[in-house]
Amino acid sequence: MSEREFIPVRIAVLTVSDTRVEADDKSGNTLVDRLEGAGHILAARMILPDERDQIADQLRAWCADDGVDVVLSTGGTGLTGRDVTVEAHRDVYEKEIDAFGTVFTHVSMAKIGTSAVQSRATGGVAQGTYLFALPGSPGACKDAWDEILVKQLDYRHKPCNFVEIMPRLDEHQRRK
To answer: In principle, which of 40, 81, 97, 124 could form an S-S bond with 93, CB 3.0–4.6 Å?
Structure first.
């Protein structure tokens, strides 16, 4: 039996911050470096302020774009008043990937102990596109990529992965 071949995924990166610009966007740079290092394609990159409607509108635009398979956002997943990324993601999700947040918390616990409870990392699917909201720290982005996403976004990962079910994510919208 032959091994599966790698399938590059087209990934958009959204940094949510009121203060960052691309030159000092360490978390966004971490995600771009890792996804490209794994052989994936950077489909788009943007920085938006912590504004729920703007974030949700951009997520929807990328979900409608056939050139984007996955969106990784970083920032705005905490507990402060300006942290609205999770709410924006949930405004867009058709289905939430509940276990993503659970697994992320488990990974974080090994690194930062009980401080992991302050993260609201989340994942979901909309219009056949995967969406993941990651914390704004480079360390959290590394952990999410290295421990979860690099494997789940690799078609060769067994026993199962996100890529192999990608063609079926929007089957409910097709005619029978």
So the answer is: 124
Go through the domains of the chain in sequence order and give each one's CATH number. 10-163 (3.40.980.10)
- Amino acid, single-letter form, for residue 115: S
pLDDT digits (tens, 9 = 90+) for 33-62: 999 999 999 999 999 999 999 999 999 999
pTM for this predicted structure: 0.94
Cβ contact 139:78 at 8 Å: no
Q: Is the peptide bond before 8 cis (omega within 30 degrees of 0)?
A: no
Q: Do residues 95 and 64 touch, judged by C-beta distance below 8 A?
A: no
CB-based burial, 57-90: b 16+ in 10 Å, e otherwise = ebbbebbebeebbbbbbbbbbbeeeebbbbebbe
Backbone region of residue 116 per phi and psi (left: phi > 0; alpha: psi in -120 to 50; beta: other values): alpha
